[in-house]
Amino acid sequence: MEPFRVHILGCGSALPTLRHNASAQVVEVRDKLFMVDCGEGTQMQLRRSRIRFTKIGHVFISHLHGDHCFGLIGMISTFGMLGRTARLHVYATAELGPMLQSQLDMFCDRLGFEVVFHPIDTRQQQVIYEDRSVSVTTIPLQHRVPCCGFLFREKPTLPHIRKEKIDFYHIPTSQIANIKAGAGWQTPEGTLIPHEQLVLPAEEPRSYAYCSDTRYISDLHLRIEGVTALYHESTYADDNIQRAEKYFHSTARQAAQVAHDAHARQLILGHYSSRYDDEQILLEEARTVFENTVLAQENTVIDL
Hints:
Layout: E1 4-10, E2 24-29, E3 32-38, H1 42-49, E4 56-60, H2 66-69, H3 72-81, E5 88-92, H4 96-107, E6 115-119, E7 127-130, E8 134-140, E9 148-154, E10 160-161, H5 163-168, H6 176-180, E11 185-186, E12 192-193, H7 195-198, E13 199-200, E14 207-211, E15 229-233, H8 241-246, H9 252-261, E16 266-270, H10 280-287, E17 293-295, E18 301-303
Parallel strand pairs: 3-4, 4-5, 5-6, 14-15, 15-16, 16-17
Antiparallel strand pairs: 1-2, 1-18, 2-3, 7-8, 8-9, 9-14, 10-13, 11-12
């Protein structure tokens, strides 16, 4: 099975602490690297994680709060100093476009690559990126500013050839692609060998939902039904539910409810308030609703 991993670079909230970095992740799908949010210090976290800068081709910014985007221009500048030539695609609300261009004009006037900006509508659930192996869809969220999450879906793969059957029936290599596509095989004696006997089923496609800053949305689960892994902000525990409501954030229990209702396989908590010295309270609270919950931590890698 090809890699589908989430690299946690930062999982803290807006107020800087010595324990957590600002929000940033890298989603690795079949040898492609996609960055999700780019808080201050992200490029240093990339160094610590030993992720190759040059392989990041797309950056998705959930919303325009500084702890989710202040690291972008610094990272772009570093890309330039490293001699990057490949385009970098940035996806965010339209308001970022002119601000980013002003920063590029000021600090990166001799950049050796093109930064391509893609405005997104956070009110719509729509595909904003797609290739042969993965699609990325926006997830409308509810925060104090326009905000959306991102749903990464792996494309289905073809079934696996059963080599022993190929050898037994002396099937030429030229026919393997046809068999993967659904064809059977007819022996020289005229016996038809069904497709199902010649292949093993392909792995089930995996998916990852990144739900950044948002208040609890009771029907959010409908947009991410059956997701393999869900990252959902859990800024507060129930002891601060009024603060969560005031600032349009979620509690760990509410994040777990979304995972439960979406029939997710795993929940990853993150975006912790600086008022918690130990996030164990968030984990314990979430697990009362959804058992398969883990805490995001910097420089950890989660395999889907």
